[in-house]
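Table S5 (text form). Sequence records supplied for joint modeling of the two-component complex.
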Amino acid sequence: MRSMESEGDPGGSRMPSRIALTALLIGLIVTAVLAVICVNLYDQNENRLLRLRARELGLVLTATVPSTQTPLAFAAELAETTDGSAQKFRAFVAPYVGAGKQFESISLWRVAPAGASLTAGVVGTTPLLASLPAEAREFFRRGRHTDLLNVTGILGTENPSLGFSYKAPGANPKFVVYAEKRLPKDRRSALESDSAFSDLNYALYLGRTQNTSSLLVTSLSHLPATGRRASDVEAFGDSSLTLVVTPRGSLGGSFFRSLPWIVAIAGLLISLAAALLTDRLVQRRRRAETLADALDRVAGENQRMYAEQRSIAETLQHALLPSAMPEVEGLTISASYFPASAGIDVGGDWYDVVTTGEGRVLVVIGDVSGHGLLAATTMASLRHATLAYAAEDPDPVRVLTKLSDYVNQGPHDYFATMLCAIIDLRDSSLTMASAGHPPPLLMAGGHGHYLDVRPGVPIGVRRARAYTSSAVTVAPDSTLVAFTDGLVERRGEVIDAGLDRLRILAGGQALPVEDLVERLASDLASDDHHDDTAILIVRWTD
Amino acid sequence: MDGLDGDSAAEVAIATSADPGGVPVISLSGELDSSNVDELQRGIADTVGRVPERLVFDLSDLRFMDSAAIAILVGVAAKVETVQLRNPSPIVRRIVEVTGLSDVLRIEP
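The corresponding structure-token record, covering 651 residues in total, follows.
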């Protein structure tokens, strides 16, 4: 048997199949691409949402400008019309000032091209700006010439504040209303959780730059803001506000934030499952192919070995049997051996035809019990012993007796049936002796009968009685058919049935002896015979 | 083939007893041919190994026996003084006659 090194190892540790690895790789690549696309889409979406939120928040801040500006505008009008009546001024602005109110202080300032001075119209704490004359001068110089809300940051002080001033419309105002709004000391403001903007952190700067010095208020603990952020600049009076926002979570919702991970994990799992499935299928197919191959090979091997052994057996058998029948004038002779239709055993059937001089021919056919090499070698030794004894004296009884004595003198566990016949062409006689062998068939004129030969015990069996011979005179054109029991013995029937079958079949034929041998074998021994068969036919010719 | 499947092995049952005279009796039933003669060989080895003077094969229920099985009985006959075949079927009876073994395997009716 060939080794099976090419079959791989179906169990134990093995490499996954290449196609499975490819499937896994493709799955992972697709997963990675999808995940990256998801991340990008998420990023873009978040950025877009954040910009929208920043803009919204900016608009909300802008919307607070009128609420800051309006009370101041009315107070300025009032001051102009009442020529700076401190009493009326205070009465008007008082509702806007104080703890929990809009402003920390509101004060009325008299302005002139030279500068500004605080009047008695002060509500709330003393304006911080009053202690900062340089800043105040600059601030009010600007304030006198703008119709917008004038904004300043007083940020470097202990109480950081925003300052707003507003004047009544007109080119040369006499008064400017000034309000201060206190900022948280650390400029940090906790977010209101119910606010519309609770999903954002923010930093609000005065002006267009994001300097720490211009920071108004923030919900961030660290500045400047890092990560995803958006900014918006809104006009705020004559100044502007810069808003920076960062998302506190996912603006698009947690599902969209998780989507890349969901895609990645699901993709990974699907890829692995697909790879495993592919691998399983590939392995299964490979195993089935391997198995089919192995079965094919074993079957082929068996067939070959069977044919080989059968051929060896047949070759051996034919080597042990005479290769050709002798040419004898007045006789045509044909013999053949047919192995059992099934199995590879050699058998123990044999035949011999030898001329012994003086117009006599010895015909031998025999059958060693059993099968196999032992039967075949026993047959060979019996055959040669027979030839040796026949050379001494071809008388059938004496040949069988000597052979029987020879076999019985030593231990043996076989027996052989054997028919020994002498054809004497001078007087057309046929003299036979049988050692347990089926009688031969003699056919003349289209009719056959079995010759009456009293069988002695087979060779190898203790004799109680001597072998006896019987003789017949043979008519011209007679045909003698000798055979072994394989030709007539069938399971489940009396041997006579087989003998009758042979007699009837042979009687109806007018074939040359070679063809008759084949016909008998093909008709009687070919279909499902378990025993080997030898057939020997002798025909008397003129 | 008379309803018999030629490829199937023949089946035989072997039972050993003794007749009133103490002679061992081996009863064979079924069929015996070259496919199962080894079974016969093993089945009778103990009884034959004691080398009785007489041995009876009861073949009442044996339908068929070919020359390979006869060879086993002949082998027994080589060791045992007298081997008797009790009530063999015509098939077996004829095989014994044709093979000239009537003196060796004595047929009882």
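Note: Chain B touches chain A at residues 1-2, 4, 6-7, 10, 31, 33-35, 63-64, 66-68, 70-71, 74-75, 77-78, 90-91, 94-95, 97-101, 103-104 (CB under 8 Å).
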